[in-house]
Amino acid sequence: MDLKPQLPSYYQLVSVSDVESQPNENTSIPPPVIRIFHPGYPEIYSPLLQFVAWDDGGVDYNIVYHACCIIVQCAVDNSLVFTATAHLSEPNSLSPYLSLAKEPEKPIPPPTDGILREKKYFLHLPRFPGRYPVIPNFSNWVFPHDDFPTLWKELPISPLPDDTVLPSTTGRPAVVVRDRSCRFTKSLCGTRGAHIVPKKDNDWFFANHMGQYCDPSSSPSYDDMRNMILLRADVHKMFDDKELVVVPKFDKNNTCHLVTHVLKWHQQSAEIKTLFHNRTCYGFTGVSPECLYARFAWSIFNSSTFRFFESQPEIFSIRIRDPNASPGSIRYIDRDITSSSQIPRSGLKSDAPSKSERATSNKRKRGVGHYSVSQERVMYSSDDEDSLHDGSSEGDHDSDVDRGRKRE
Fold first, then answer.
1. Among residues 154, 115, 117, 113, which one has the least CA distance to residue 254?
2. Of all helices (H) and strands (E), which one includes residue 297?
3. DSSP letters of 213-266?
């Protein structure tokens, strides 16, 4: 019989311009990073955020600015967002902003090419000088329905054609008909339906009323097609391991595209960077921009990007959701803690510790410490205008089929 040669390596598959020289796949030399610091803490503290500098020697400004607004639960100031058009308005004097100095000063404007290249920046909150509180994890973050960022609202996503005939079941069968192939690689084989807001965070999904962005002709569900895309199995795992995320970026012609952005660095990252960093996605159809933004927020809370609580035990100011708030309302509690082990659960079932987390906690026999009651204060949403090591996967690797319908 005629045998085929070995499949080509990824170095042979990508263009020469993508790989200047064949890198060592097991290199242990970390790449340069861009760090964002909290001005209210000494610089011996870990940075609030850290990004690998793989965007033309820096990191995309919009990714950093939106991530900063997420971890402090503040509205994005659209005048501080890099866009293809000139900025016509002045920033809000109370908006969060980036600067090169620890002391408050004028915000740095979005760079002309949209790339941050300095090694260190500071995130300032004029409305909350000093040690402003930080959202400690995704389950305590509240979706900004009234302040949804314009950049994400205008994502290049096509609507589902009215004449599309879908199977009678929702979930993966419907997503296969709609997407046909992996949205990152265009592969036809080995694909599965991937939830955008992760399945394990369905409590967060409903607590934040994300069902309003689902198909209005069906019951709100995290299995709704607008919260799913088709991905090849190995890419799905990287997606769920928070190694890469889908974001909007502008090309040299100032056209906005949905691309994959690699968040994590490890010894095998050379291959992931070459294949997936800044790769334009294949067309997204009938997907919720709001769910994609929530996925971005979920992905930011990983042990490589969000490292603030890795600092030596000191006092940290955090902002959490009040689990005792009345149904339908959102209330925040600001607390001072001395270690990440004191971060309370959000009250959502998806925030409950897994069996492995409980086993690790029991094995370590760590004390939980205590809160300073005098440092606790309650804030209502109307007053505020505007186990952090997460190396595990989402666990959303199934293709459950639930209720379905045929599109009229």
1. 113
2. helix 289-300
3. GS-TTS---TTSGGGEEEEEHHHHHHHHTTSEEEEEEE-TT--EEEEEEE----
Say how far apart CA 166 and CA 41 lie, in whole Å: 54
Burial class (CB in 10 A: 0-12, 13-18, 19+), 61: buried
- Amino acid making up residue 364: R
- State the pLDDT at residue 29: 78
Indicate the average pLDDT of the chain.
Answer: 80
Distance CA 45, CA 360 (A): 25
DSSP bridge pairs for 262: 244
What does the alpha-carbon distance between residue 210 and residue 223 come to, in Å, rounded to a whole number? 12
Name residue 130's amino acid: G
CA angle centred on 15, ends 10 and 17, rounded to 5°: 125
* pLDDT (tens digit per residue) in 333-386: 999 998 888 887 776 765 555 554 445 444 433 333 333 333 334 443 333 333
Measure the CA dihedral 180/184/188/193, to 10°. Answer: -60
Mean pLDDT of 106-135: 93
How are beta strands 191-195 and 97-99 bridged, if at all?
Answer: unpaired
Three-class SS state of 60: strand
Structure tokens at 87: 């900025």
| Residue partners of 296: CB distance under 8 A and separation at least 6 | 66, 67, 70, 152, 245, 246, 247
Render pLDDT for 265-291 as a digit per residue (tens, 0 to 9).
877 677 888 889 999 999 999 999 999
Distances (CA, A) of 160 to 119, 180, 408: 43, 13, 12
Q: Which amino acid is at 174?
A: A
Torsion, Cα of 65, 49, 329, 149 (10° steps): 20
Contact 149, 212 (CB under 8 A): no
Percent of the chain with pLDDT over 90: 53
Distance CA 246, CA 260 (A): 5
**Rounded Cα gap, residues 97 and 122, in angstroms:** 8
